[in-house]
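Here is one such tokenized protein:
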Amino acid sequence: MKINWKHTMVMFILSVSLVIPSAAFHVAADEKYASTTTVKSYPLTSDIKVEVKSILNESTPEGARIGTVVRLYNDGDRLTGVPEYEVRAKTQEGLEYIMRPSQANAKNIQPKETVELSYMTVIERFDVFSLTDLSFYDVDEFVYPKQEKKIISLPISDIEWKGEKANLTDPSTMKKWDDQFTIPVLSSTLSYKPVSLTEQNTPDGPMTIVALLAKNTGDKKTNIPDFRINGKLENKIYSGKRIEKDPITLDPGEENYVHYAIPIRNKMDLKSLSVLTPEDFVGEDKKHTEYLIGRLTITPPGANDVRYFMNQLSQYEWNKPLQIDPLTKLIRPEISVSMVDLRVYESAGGGFKAAVAKFRLLNKSENPLPVPLFQTVLTSSSGNKYLGTRQNTQVESLIPNLSYVIYYSFIIPNAENGEQLAMEITDGKSVEPYNLPLAAFKTKVMDETDDKDAAFFPFQVTLNNWSIGINYNMGQGSVPYSYKNNLDFGIKLQDEIVVDKSFSQMRLEFADAKNRIMASKVLSFTGDNKLISGAQSIDFNADRLENTVYLRIYEIIDTPFGEARRLVQTMKR
């Protein structure tokens, strides 16, 4: 029997597909599966060594699908043809099944080169059986009777994978959350360590994001190969997808992250994570059959509730630089990020509250740098998450040795008191629409009894004096009373800090003793008509004489739900 083989280069290319293969599929049984993580090689000819990379034995509606991938290594010094051997899989009952070669298999092997060869067959049997050996036969069909000679038989019972129903049980394949591991069939010089498990709402629905920290421990530049991570619940398996769109290449000693999105709403429901490698078989009709082989099982972190999450974080000290993940490319190391303010605002018409966080960005370099477009997430002690809305800024670059202040607003329910909060800084640009964690800390909203002069940070605002005069208008048809308000402000922008014109503003509101608004005016801290130190005069007319007038000073900001304001000070005349 003549078998054609096609060259397959042993290169690993990252999958760039962002399509979830399917939703959940049910596991019909809970079969045990044991595997070792080592790959053994055997001599096939005097120059060629063979090793078994993958063995599949799974039940399908068409019958038992048996697949295998082997690697051949040419240890010689010249181009060598792939031996035209017949490959057979042997069952525990002693039955042998002939495997069909993939149309993509190699025909020749260059010196010191490795090729991967794929085989598959579907047997019309639906009972449960196991495989024990993979054998190579030299078959001569041109003589009668046909002659065959067994070249080598390789043990495969320890690496047999039974598809979606299988569970890994070999201790060498069971990993705890903090364990560092390798995937030897892909690379022995790339190590991985699980570092985070987060929940997010995305356009594709709720997702649990798994982050692995990959490190190149070898001495050559290496691509992170294609592998998958699936999530398992009690009786369901959810297919994960790698969310990085571009290949990730690591220099020797370099580290970087690789992330997977699993369509699970609650990460606490996760029982295990499976690491799988993809294989491919091309039939005679050129149709590709893809399948996955389980390699490792990772146990998710225990006690991973909100209280545990909060306890893992440090209490933030105002205006101190945040410890940003050094591997991120979104926030340059020359940029210092600190949170300088966090207060609660109310909507003018009621219905919602907004927590507003102000961040200070300092460019410590000698060159202009782009403003980092990071995202923010606020988590309450009850576990509710609120995504921050970034100020609608127009500044694109940070000036050297100057700070830029920007705010983020979080729409929160009226019942939220803001006493115990967690703030997360995330990267929402690198792999949109997902947010990757960059920093996290414990915090709380500021006490409104704090220094009033700093209430409009970064502006120091002091109302030095306020006086009001009332005149009676004698003219016919005119409003009887005119009010003249004189306000003396002291305005100072802190040194080496800038804001843009979309920053917060001041609202002055005049009301009578019955809380009826008589007049109001909005003053900006930026622009041509910005509020400056000195006297401000505000005049308005009224049809009644009020002996008592209240002046209320608000800070106002824009949110997606409309204007939100925070009462800074109330004065009475």
In short: Residues 306-311 form the longest helix (6 residues). Helices lie at 306-311. Residues 1-37 have pLDDT under 50 and may be disordered.
